[in-house]
């Protein structure tokens, strides 16, 4: 079920279509306004040209210029002009004398009245004009020309001819033009809507059918996850550019400002991934600023054939990983020891309980004394080992060996001074790992495991000897490398961790075959004086 309650019609596709329609309608309205204004200007210009042409023709009629020169009413003049008006389909043709008094007019009651509109000055001065003015019949486009005496241009002006078309005719022409464009507007609207739907679907497919709210939530979750991780995480695209870096990555790599070339940020990783990353890689050992790190690489899907999709890299300090592995090893070892002790003591208690129930108290006492003697003898062997945690580990391993049917011994004369308490963690890790490996080497068969601990002025030594078959020859040279093990996948980290910790203290870890037994030898140099507060 979708986590986000996005209402029907409020998704990305619906919003894109609505936004597109809104923009398209706004652009269409603006275009209509612009086109209307242009059509109005064109219609007014065409009507004006038509009006002034008619006025010129009327002004050349003998009856017109003779009547204007006489300056008196003439029914014949008015009748002829009105007849011409009907033929020209004009709204009015008005003839006035030199004083602007109407000599011809479509309305008989207006004859003899002054012409209205205030635009006679130019024609009475001998100039032709096209004007828009409001007369007695309403707002109109007028074409006005002067009437010359004798019909000869350039002579004396004796009157004016005004032909006009009322403005509704201009708007009628505009409406006709807009109606002719309406199908194209509707076609553009339909194509725009279809294009918006197609673009929205393509966009949703490109963003994995996620809504903007989902993308924003995922981005916030991604930032929170990266901030919570203690591993460094970087994302690299197919062009080798670092496009994302977590805070921890910036701490390990230095300031990273995406996009940044991987070859500059981390040259070694760039060289490893230069040929592409066909499959996932885990626990790859690289160096970063001189420090060993463990790197996991996860390839990303490519954008097309032959095009690299980049990868995501998670990396952590190798020392931190080994420290965590050691802690897990300790915990697992302690759990095994406690389980073995519980198991063995339960068995002993069951034996004692059974003997007592059978009335064999003397035999029960002998069993109890034998156990006490064995424990006392084992503790006597460890009396000179003055590192309590190491003693506790060996005691636990003895119980573990008894559970597995293995004879576990601490060599007589083992000793270790309290000076080595400061390296107790390393000793517990090393001895615990070596003894557990010795138990596993016996593969459930009866055998012997012996631990020898000693020290001299140059340092301390630990030997763990077992009667198992030994290290396979093919692993002899790489036994202490990480991931190398004869026990299958997912193993091979314990010895590598122990070796790293021992070498960090200046010691050595070796293995050999002696008298048919496998011997692992650990040596550490004598630690220097401990600094105050260390």
Automatic annotation (TrEMBL):
MF terms in GO: ATP binding
UniProt keyword annotation of Coiled coil present: no
Residue span, Histidine kinase domain: 340-528
EC number: 2.7.13.3
Membrane topology qualifier: Multi-pass membrane protein
Signal peptide residue numbers: none
UniProt keyword list: ATP-binding, Cell membrane, Kinase, Membrane, Nucleotide-binding, Phosphoprotein, Transferase, Transmembrane, Transmembrane helix, Two-component regulatory system
Coiled-coil blocks: none
Subcellular location: Cell membrane
Reaction(s) catalysed (UniProt annotation): ATP + protein L-histidine = ADP + protein N-phospho-L-histidine
SMART domains: HATPase_c, PAS
Residue ranges of the TM segments: 21-40
Superkingdom to which the source organism belongs: Bacteria
Main location: membrane
Xref: Pfam families: HATPase_c, sCache_3_2, SPOB_a
Protein name: histidine kinase
């Amino acid at each position: 079920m979708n986590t986000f309650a996005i209402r029907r019609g409020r998704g990305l596709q619906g919003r894109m279509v609505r936004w597109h329609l809104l923009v398209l309608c706004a652009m269409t309205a603006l275009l209509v306004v612009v086109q209307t204004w242009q059509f109005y200007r064109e219609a007014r210009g065409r009507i004006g040209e038509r009006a002034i042409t008619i006025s010129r023709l009327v002004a050349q009629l003998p009856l017109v210029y003779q009547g204007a020169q006489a300056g008196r009413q003439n029914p014949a003049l008015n009748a002829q002009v009105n007849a011409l008006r009907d033929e020209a389909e004009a709204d009015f043709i008005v003839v006035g004398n030199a004083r602007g008094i109407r000599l011809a007019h479509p309305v008989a009651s207006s004859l003899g009245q002054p012409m209205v509109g205030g635009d006679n000055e130019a024609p009475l001065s001998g100039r032709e004009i096209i004007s828009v003015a409001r007369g007695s019949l309403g707002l109109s486009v007028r074409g006005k020309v002067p009437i010359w005496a004798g019909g000869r241009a350039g002579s004396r002006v004796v009157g004016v001819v005004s032909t006009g078309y009322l403005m509704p005719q201009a708007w009628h022409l505009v409406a006709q033009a807009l109606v002719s464009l309406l199908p194209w507007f509707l076609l553009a609207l339909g194509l725009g809507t279809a294009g918006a739907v197609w673009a929205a679907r393509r966009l949703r497919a490109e963003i994995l059918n996620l809504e903007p709210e989902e993308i924003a939530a995922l981005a916030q979750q991604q930032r929170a996850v990266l901030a919570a991780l203690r591993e460094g995480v970087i994302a690299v695209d197919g062009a080798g550019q670092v496009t994302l870096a977590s805070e921890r990555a910036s701490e390990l790599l230095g300031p990273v400002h995406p996009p940044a070339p991987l070859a500059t940020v981390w040259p070694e990783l760039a060289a490893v991934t230069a040929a592409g990353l066909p499959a996932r890689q885990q626990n790859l050992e690289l160096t970063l600023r001189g420090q060993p790190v463990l790197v996991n690489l996860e390839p990303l899907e490519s954008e097309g054939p032959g095009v690299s999709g980049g990868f995501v890299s998670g990396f952590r300090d190798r020392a931190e990983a080994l420290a965590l592995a050691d802690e897990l090893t300790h915990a697992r070892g302690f759990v095994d020891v406690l389980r073995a002790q519980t198991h063995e003591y339960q068995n002993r208690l069951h034996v004692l309980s059974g003997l007592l129930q059978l009335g064999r108290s003397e035999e029960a006492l002998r069993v109890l004394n034998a156990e006490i003697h064995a424990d006392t003898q084992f503790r006597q062997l460890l009396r000179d080992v003055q590192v309590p945690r190491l003693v506790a580990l060996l005691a636990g391993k003895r119980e573990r060996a008894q559970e597995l049917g293995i004879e576990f011994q601490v060599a007589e004369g083992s000793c270790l001074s309290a000076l080595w308490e400061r390296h107790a963690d390393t000793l517990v890790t090393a001895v615990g790992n070596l003894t557990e490996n010795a138990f596993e080497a016996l593969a459930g068969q009866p055998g012997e495991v012996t631990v020898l601990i000693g020290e001299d002025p140059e340092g301390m030594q630990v030997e763990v000897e077992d009667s198992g078959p030994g290290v396979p020859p093919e692993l002899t040279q790489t036994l202490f490398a990480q991931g190398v093990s004869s026990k299958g996948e997912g193993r091979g980290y314990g010895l590598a961790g122990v070796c790293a910790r021992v070498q960090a203290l200046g010691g050595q870890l070796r293995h050999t075959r002696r008298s048919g037994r496998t011997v692992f030898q650990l040596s550490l140099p004598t630690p220097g004086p401990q600094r105050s507060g260390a």
